[in-house]
Amino acid sequence: MQRRFVSIWFRQLLADWQLIRRPELAEIPFVFAAPDHGRMIITASSPLAAAAGAQRGMRAADAKAICAGLEVLDDKPGRAKKLLQGLGEWCIRYAPIVAIDEFGMDGLLMEVSGCPHLWGGERPYLKDIVSRLKSKGYTVRAAIADTPGAAWAISRYGTITPIIEVNGQAEALLPLPPEALRLDEIVLARLRKLGFYQIRSFFNMPRSVLRRRFGEEFLLRLAQALGTEAEALLPIQVPVAFQQRLPCMEPIRTRTAIEIAITKLLESLCPSMQAEGKGLRKGVLTGYRLDGKLVQVSIGTNAASHSVSHLFKLFQLKIDQIRPGLGIELFILEVTKPGDVELPQETIWTEKPGLDDNSVIRLLDRVAGKVGAEVIRRYLPATRYWPERSVSNTTSITAKKDTEWRMDMPRPTELLATPAPIEVMALIPDHPPRFFRYNGVQHQVVKADGPERIEREWWLDEGEHRDYYQVEDDKGRRYWLFRSGHYGSEKQFKWFIHGFFA
């Protein structure tokens, strides 16, 4: 596929932005100015101010002298880049790769290979971009070419059609001035001094001569514009590996239409994931509304999946969160976190598939879609001594346990996260308590079993061991108590309650 690029030039970016915010300035000349070595220098001018002679680079005081009623606004560092960042994010609806033009900080560069056909061709595609930006209040020019450099040159200095045919960039560049090659002012001054006012003047000169007179950067810019040297774009958002777009012929506003759009996206996306053995772990559906706003919903799965029906059910749970407003004109489905799809081992007899059963995994995915993934917990045994440390929490259904649950000794059905201190009376050392007081309530012990000694992990910290007892009070309630340390030791022993049996 032939690579194609679009350059969008915002001819008066800051002025247009200010007029959108303050329409009353349409009849007032104004400029933006920033301090430079103790002077206020103009960084951008409105059309009225520029027509009166207030140009970029001029001192604001001089501009006030030649333009009556000039309003000077403070410019902030990085404002133009911030504006281009927002405009670039809006333009992602037209192409996945959108970059800020760092040379002049007044435009965007887009790689649009494979995108224009979704709008019926390059001409209606470019027309839609320009008309939509103009409707928002921005004065723009745009061009399409095989290279970012050629598109940049035509959008700013071209007088012919802004759509350059494939492999036609050399012919389109010849009548343009050297400024179209994105050269610095020192090189441009040398070119003017030698009488080179068009690219055709030096286009056929030996490269060794051009290198000696104008430097390596000059040849690099020329080669990038012609396409003999690749030029990389730094995208505002890095495109994901799996993505599908669905432009809508008519704005979508109904739930049924959104469901149809999701189905079409998944039917296109899932086969491409399946071909590479991948599946969706996290996905985002973005809708671009007519009013310029975005609506997004996301889903997640416990195991990578490329099942159209399963993923559709997860998105179906989120449709109520989509607010189409006046209508959605473009849907983009992105797999932000893909994963390897594990093929299950085929067996003749399957007695207890457990968590490996796909139906269980899909059920948990749907539960998470309704109530949130954060409310679902899975606990695995951990190789630790103390009970509160012997359990690990995981959100992955595919995680494997490192050890087995301890089954040789009974454990309470409810375990306190932190043992609570209690008051205890015991007859003789190492005997279970006769009664204990917990939360102000006294419990008379009628049955007891123990002790079970559990040591502290000496390789982690020092301290006393625990002697655990299972006790039952006179009302039939059973508890798990322990004494920390020995009777008669230098350190004072303490009693705690740690759990409750059913």
Helix percentage: 25-40%
What is the CATH superfamily label of the largest domain? Answer: Reverse transcriptase/Diguanylate cyclase domain
Could you give the distance between the termini? Answer: 68 Å
Provide the CATH architecture of the largest domain: 2-Layer Sandwich
Shape: elongated
Count of DSSP helices? 13
- Integer-rounded radius of gyration: 35 Å
Contiguous runs where pLDDT drops below 50 for at least 5 residues: none
Chain-averaged pLDDT: 87
Describe this protein's structure.
The chain is α+β, with helices and mostly antiparallel strands and 502 residues long. It folds into three domains: 1-12 and 78-239, Reverse transcriptase/Diguanylate cyclase domain (Alpha-Beta Plaits, 2-Layer Sandwich); 243-340, Dna Ligase, domain 1; 414-500, no CATH class. 27% of the residues lie in helices and 29% in strands. It contains 13 helices and 20 strands. It has helices at residues 13-21, 47-51, 60-66, 79-91, 122-135, 148-157, 169-173, 185-193, 207-214, 216-226, 255-275, 308-316, 358-371; strands at 5-10, 30-36, 39-45, 71-74, 97-100, 107-111, 140-145, 243-252, 278-289, 294-305, 328-340, 378-381, 391-394, 414-421, 423-425, 435-438, 441-454, 466-473, 478-484, 494-500. The protein has a seven-stranded antiparallel sheet with strand order 14-20-19-18-17-16-15, with no helix packed on it. A four-stranded antiparallel sheet has the order 5-6-1-7. The protein has a four-stranded antiparallel sheet with strand order 8-11-9-10. Strand 16 (435-438) and strand 17 (441-454) form a beta hairpin. It is elongated, with a radius of gyration of 35 Å. The model has no long low-confidence stretch (mean pLDDT 87). One of its GO terms (biological process) is DNA repair. GO terms for molecular function: transferase activity. InterPro entries: DNA/RNA_pol_sf, Rev_trsase/Diguanyl_cyclase, SulA_CellDiv_inhibitor, UmuC.
